[in-house]
Amino acid sequence: MTVLPRSAVALMLLAACRGVAGGGAGLDPDPGSPDPPSGQGTIEVRTETPEPRPLLEYTVTISNGQRSAIGHNDSVDFTTRRLGLHDVLLAVPSPCAVQGEAHRIVDVPIHPPVRVFFRVRCGPALSAGALP
User: Fold this and answer.
1) Distance CA 78, CA 46 (A)
2) Fewer CB atoms inside 10 A, N or C side of the chain?
3) Whether the predicted model's global pTM rises above the 0.70 cut
4) Exposure pattern of 30-47 as b/e (b: 16+ CB <10 Å)?
5) What pLDDT, in 10s, does the model give residues 90-111?
């Protein structure tokens, strides 16, 4: 009779459990890391500009590379297959500036959509670094 060390028995049990739960056989490459969340989430970006400039439009970019133009009092939705943390960046032309941070980090769940709100001020004396 062969006696296996407890650590070998534990690894075999872990492999068997992962094979049954995951539909396959073998060990997870990193058994200590959680599985990445799966599903589809939505990021809804809204802008508000009290003194709109009809010819100006802004650009929203999220961390997976999706990009969209957005108007001065508008919204746009992004659908992502990766749940979890995402960067959202609003780029505005001169003479406008984002009030608060133009770069936000949001945690995207399956449901409900994550809403990101940007307030933008435009005026002749405004620059990207100076807000009233």
Assistant:
1) 12
2) N
3) no
4) eeeeeeeeeeebbbebeb
5) 999 988 999 999 999 999 999 9
If one compares 2 and 42, the residue with the highest pLDDT of the two is 42
- Residue at 111: amino acid letter: H
Q: Which residue has the tokens 């659908």?
A: 79
Q: What amino acid is encoded at 72 in this protein?
A: H
Q: Residue type for 3, please? A: V
**Choice between 44 and 29, residue whose per-residue pLDDT is larger:** 44
Q: How many residues does the chain have?
A: 132
| Tokens describing residue 125 | 């004396």
**Residue 48, token pair as written in the block:** 């508000």
Average pLDDT, the chain: 76
